């Protein structure tokens, strides 16, 4: 993924109309959400939201996404205005796309679901303009949309979401500079802006955009240390960005922490295998690819297929 793609948006002003964009009010949110219902029996909603929410978030990071959807559907039934279930439902195709192979269908699904969540969040801000939790989630959704849209060459969406997300992040800075969501939003933005090639960085400054790459990494490291589920996302981004900068040990350290914390999630194990392969440590790469195959997780099934291919290639080219 070309994080610095935003400079192309500034340079060319590419206009893209998102053909699948959903219009309408909150009623459309409920109608679309029904498409994600899991068609099997559920136990009665006997648990309170405070009991269901930690279980739902844990299942998300363990990549038990059928369970995640069921639990968040229950939470939505208990409170139709709660933004958090919509946020995490959008995160499932985002993780599948960003960490599992960049399938354009998953990008479209994420953009649609995040658009619904954003509409709900914006409606809530009209009633409570300074609600910190809503601003946090909107900042994250717009930031993730900018990354996916840039990868899919939807440059107008990428720039619009990036700027809107940063405007929410700046609002948060005036509330709590140490909030992990704020730190992550700022960190991603600073890294993106700091990665713009120097010869065109002046164009970004004309648009009022600037940032420092190392400062962005520092902010993300602080977010990764937080006692919050946000630390998981921060570690994933750090792993990706460190790999991009060929700092493989730093990338692997963050992935190893996540793999130990959520051993059933194949994303972390697969990316550790990739790092080992990039380092030329082929026996270790083979070991971790084999772990992905053994996990046989229904989440991101492509990772199992990719791991089988990588094991075969390693055995042919490096392990004989």
Helicity level: over 70%
How many domains?
A: 2
CATH class of the largest domain: Mainly Alpha
Q: Approximately how much beta-strand content do the residues carry?
A: under 5%
Q: Calculate the terminal CA-CA distance, rounded to whole Å.
A: 33 Å
State the low-pLDDT regions, or none: 1-42
**CATH architecture name of the largest domain:** Alpha Horseshoe
Layout: helices, strands, pairs:
Elements: H1 6-12, H2 26-33, H3 49-61, H4 65-78, H5 83-100, H6 104-127, H7 132-151, H8 155-173, H9 180-194, H10 201-206, H11 213-224, H12 230-244, H13 248-261, H14 266-278, H15 282-295, H16 302-317
Helix pairs in contact: 1-8, 2-6, 3-4, 4-5, 5-6, 5-7, 6-7, 7-8, 7-9, 8-9, 9-11, 9-12, 11-12, 12-13, 13-14, 14-15, 15-16
Question: Can you offer a commentary on this structure?
Answer:
- The chain is mostly helical and 320 residues long.
- The protein has 2 domains: 256 residues, Tetratricopeptide repeat domain (Serine Threonine Protein Phosphatase 5, Tetratricopeptide repeat); 58 residues, no CATH class.
- Helix content is 71%, strand content 0%.
- It is built from 16 helices and no strands.
- The longest helix is centred in the middle third of the chain and has 24 residues.
